[in-house]
Amino acid sequence: MIARYGLDRRPIGTIIGATILIVGFVAALIFVSLGLNRDTLTATLITWDDVAPDHVSVTFDVQRQAADTVTCVVRAQDKSRADVGYAAITLEPGAATVRVDYELRTLAPAYVLELLGCSVGPTANVIQPQFPPGVVPPNQPWSP
Asked: Transmembrane stretches, by residue range (predicted)?
């Protein structure tokens, strides 16, 4: 047919269609793999307030599997970035989404508060307390 009619071209529609199908399939695979590999534990700091020089009030949300025991770590620091409060908070199994209100005892007024992280079981991958040498961390939680 090529010799008789001189047609030497590939059907462009077929190439475009195949390319669109391949790109769509790869995009679907990426979407599914990201969804399956998403962390089942997320923690979000909502708010904190330095209510008094000796304690701060902190609120954070935790989304987890309902059957998991979760440990979250919060710390407060002063203007020089020295720790003035540090607590590991254990959340027993229960609701999948939990809002935690915690009163953190501090040695001095807090300038910064951080939710260092949460993990299932004991917390291992967070920064350890960084109190100045000779300073004893305050007992937690704060109570009037």
From this structure: 12-36
The DSSP code sequence of 3-62 is HHH------HHHHHHHHHHHHHHHHHHHHHHHHHTS-S-EEEEEEEEEEETTEEEEEEEE
What would the two tokens of residue 8 be?
């030497």
Residue indicated by tokens 């937690």: 140
Q: Tens of pLDDT along the chain (144 residues)?
A: 566 666 666 677 888 888 999 999 999 888 888 777 766 899 999 999 999 999 999 999 999 999 999 999 999 999 999 999 999 999 999 999 999 999 999 999 999 999 999 999 877 678 889 898 999 999 999 888
Sorted by sequence, the CB contacts under 8 Å of residue 109 that are 6+ apart come out as: 50, 53, 78, 84
- Residue 73 tokens, joined: 């770590």
Question: Which class does domain 42-120 fall in?
Answer: mainly beta
Domain spans, the chain: 2-36, 42-120
